[in-house]
């Protein structure tokens, strides 16, 4: 029996409807829309597409977007000046600096300049630290989207063994912390993990975030597991996940497709974070 497909597009659409309604309530109470500033430095094609989609998402959800497009030669001083000005702008509730940045700009230092209450990407040391401590904070968007997708299955996370394959600061580590917060027992695997398949076959919930095309094979999946595929790998003009979909679909109870799974949730959670920041929560 094939797994049920977790439709990220449909779930994101429903959430965006709720975000729009809440943003409209915010406008009635505050006489302005929630505001998101998006900063793009350079001419990276993929980044430009992401920024375009974020601006489009804002329009869809009654959130004002402030787009700042800077040249590749932008200096640390220039970007710092912009971020500080956005920190002080009361019409801007969230600030997102699109990664990657040109090599002359230290991403960690630049992200660290963003006021923590406006860090809607959830990448700063402040946000990551609060997540680790279990404090309320703005959470990295893709990990937050993963949790929403798991919850959409109706399967209880508490008490389950969740295995995260990948330990990046953007997905692997934060999604592990979020799963812990939901009372799962969490194992984090990585490139040095011995006998990876032995561990993944124990997972009631498996999150694949390694960035390698079809890395997780069907024989690495526990029967009835929930499989969340975070990977986006481009080959010959097509998109592939980190999971060998056709084989894993036969073993899992629920699985996300690529595209159409985690991807649509990332910008949606960014919009939700912007609304949360606007409300000061």
Description:
The chain has 281 residues and is α/β, with parallel strands linked by helices. The protein has 2 domains: 86 residues, Rossmann fold; 124 residues, Rossmann fold, CATH 3.40.50. It has 10 helices and 11 strands. The chain has a 6-stranded parallel beta sheet. The model has no long low-confidence stretch (mean pLDDT 96).
Please give a quick description of this structure.
By secondary structure, this protein is α/β, with parallel strands linked by helices. Helix content is 41%, strand content 16%.
Fold topology:
Elements lengths: L3 E2 L2 H23 L4 E7 L3 H16 L3 E7 L5 H12 L6 E4 L9 H6 L12 H9 L7 H12 L8 E5 L6 H10 L3 E5 L6 H5 L4 E4 L17 E4 L3 E3 L2 E3 L4 H5 L4 E2 L7 H16 L3
Parallel strand pairs: 1-11, 2-3, 2-4, 5-6, 5-7, 7-8, 8-11
Antiparallel strand pairs: 9-10
List keywords for this structure.
single chain; alpha/beta; Rossmann fold; 2 domains; 10 helices; 11 strands; globular
The average pLDDT is 96
What is the CATH topology assignment of the largest domain? Rossmann fold
Q: Segments where pLDDT lies below 50 for 5+ residues?
A: none
User: How many structural domains in the coordinates?
Assistant: 2
Helix content: 40-55%
- Report, as a whole number of angstroms, the end-to-end distance: 43 Å
Tell me the strand percentage band.
15-25%
> What is the CATH architecture annotation of the largest domain?
3-Layer(aba) Sandwich
Strand order of the largest sheet: 1-11-8-7-5-6
CATH class label of the largest domain: Alpha Beta
Element-by-element helix/strand order: EHEHEHEHHHEHEHEEEEHEH
Describe the largest sheet.
6 strands, parallel
Q: Which structural class do the helices and strands define?
A: alpha/beta
* Gyration radius over CA: 19 Å
**Beta strands, count:** 11
Q: What would you call the shape? A: globular
């Amino acid at each position: 029996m094939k797994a049920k497909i977790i439709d990220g597009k449909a779930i994101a659409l429903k959430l965006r409807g709720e975000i729009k309604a809440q943003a409209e309530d915010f406008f009635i109470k505050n006489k302005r829309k929630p505001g998101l500033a998006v900063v793009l430095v350079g001419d990276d094609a993929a980044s430009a597409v992401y920024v375009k989609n974020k601006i489009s998402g804002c329009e869809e959800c009654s959130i004002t977007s402030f787009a700042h497009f800077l040249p590749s030669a932008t200096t640390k001083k220039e970007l710092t000046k912009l971020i500080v000005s956005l920190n002080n702008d009361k019409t801007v509730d969230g600030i997102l600096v699109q990664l990657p940045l040109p090599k002359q700009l230290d991403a960690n230092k630049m992200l660290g300049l963003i006021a923590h209450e406006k860090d809607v990407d959830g990448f700063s040391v402040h946000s990551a630290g609060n997540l680790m401590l279990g404090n309320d904070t703005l959470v990295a968007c893709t990990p937050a989207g993963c949790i929403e997708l798991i919850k959409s299955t109706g399967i209880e996370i508490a008490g389950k063994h969740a295995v995260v394959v990948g330990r990046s600061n953007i997905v692997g580590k934060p999604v592990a912390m979020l799963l812990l917060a939901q009372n799962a027992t969490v194992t984090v695997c990585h490139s040095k993990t011995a006998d990876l398949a032995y561990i993944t076959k124990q997972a009631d919930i498996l999150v694949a975030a390694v960035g390698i095309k079809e890395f997780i094979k069907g024989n690495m999946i526990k029967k009835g597991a929930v499989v969340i595929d975070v990977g986006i790998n481009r080959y010959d003009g097509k998109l592939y996940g980190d999971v060998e979909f056709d084989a894993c679909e036969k073993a899992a109870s629920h699985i996300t497709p690529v595209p159409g799974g985690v991807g649509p949730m990332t910008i949606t959670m960014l919009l939700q974070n912007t609304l949360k920041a606007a409300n000061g929560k």
